[in-house]
């Protein structure tokens, strides 16, 4: 499976991204998700992007259609213990089994008729909130900055934090053959460029470790 992007819910209106800039990442575009009640800051790389996400409108995030997605619940991860992470996959045949019983979400900021398959993992909220792109096939080319001063380029592995109870969940079984998407008992770990610089960056405010 191919990752399109990862999101991390912020507890400080996206200010945690300032430390990513100090770390040597060049920030890309940002967006307000009208009708969903969220906004973001983004960092792009050769094969995916990292999104810092937060709630800006409590009314929008807590009414239909966003309410049913559980995004508002995930945004309150520090109070309810849910995962603050989101995983977006490229929409390919390889993801069909995972999304076989997915819910359909039509965001207000999407054109009418365009929707995404989502797995809110309501029964297992410590698993990442998961969804796939609305269109089939490869990613669209995006004109965003991808050359970072710390010279990291390509995501080569990702590890999500989970607990022992979730190790054998049906959700995780869909990733058993994936060498680059792992579930462990640590923070979110993003490995870039196979760790060729042999360096490590840690952002405790985002529960994020970057190996590069």
Q: What does the radius of gyration come to?
A: 16 Å
CATH-scheme architecture: Roll
Average of pLDDT: 91
Q: Work out the helicity level.
A: 10-25%
Estimate the global geometry from the Cα principal axes: globular
What do these coordinates show?
Helix content is 11%, strand content 33%. The protein is mainly beta. It has a single domain, classed as 2,3-Dihydroxybiphenyl 1,2-Dioxygenase, domain 1 (Roll). It has an eight-stranded mixed sheet with strand order 2-3-4-1-5-8-7-6. A hairpin with a 4-residue loop joins strand 2 (30-33) and strand 3. The mean pLDDT is 91.
Task: Produce the secondary structure layout.
Layout (H helix, E strand, L loop, with lengths): L2 E7 L7 H7 L6 E4 L4 E7 L4 E7 L2 H4 L9 H5 L1 H4 L4 E7 L11 E3 L10 E4 L9 E8 L18 E7 L8 H4 L7 E4 L3 E5 L7 E4 L4 E4 L1
Parallel strand pairs: 1-4, 5-8, 9-10, 11-13
Antiparallel strand pairs: 1-5, 2-3, 3-4, 6-7, 7-8, 9-11, 12-13
What's the quick description here?
It is built from 5 helices and 13 strands. With about 210 residues, the protein is mainly beta.
